[in-house]
Amino acid sequence: MKLRQLRRLPSYSARLLTLMSSIGLIACGSGTADLQAYVEDVKNRPGPPLDPLPVMQPFVVFEYSPEGLRDPFSVPKENAESESSGVRPDPDRRKELLESFPLDGLGMVGTLGEGEALVALVIDPDQVVHRVKVGNYLGQNEGRITAINENRIDLVELVPDGAGGWLERQASVSLEDEQ
Prior knowledge:
Helix content is about 30%, strand content about 25%. By secondary structure, it is an alpha+beta fold.
């Protein structure tokens, strides 16, 4: 008899649970009418006015007529002539250590010797002092030392001219004042 009562218990619980769920859903269904009315009201409202279309500017037609003009992808004739006779860096020359620093990062700290045997002392950004003489190179623009004085080093740099050639530019490194 106890076994029979246990079998009835789950079906009774299941029926009770179904009944309670149905009552809950019926109670919730009455509140959806207000929600549906609100959604319909929002859908029926007019939208905001659209911005006017921007005024289109008229397109200006440019006609390119290349007659009498040089080819923009070739070297100009006046520069081609100057390239063959102008100065240029020596690609086979071995770079010196002080050419890896910009010229404004180098400073002169003194000289050694006298007259033609004058040697300059140059300090690099790593605070290492180097000896240089006439003919050595400084800076990143192929700067060749042309003269060493008691208070400065004169040099000639090679800089690109923007048209495939090279220009010589005078530069100097002055003795740093001790403070």
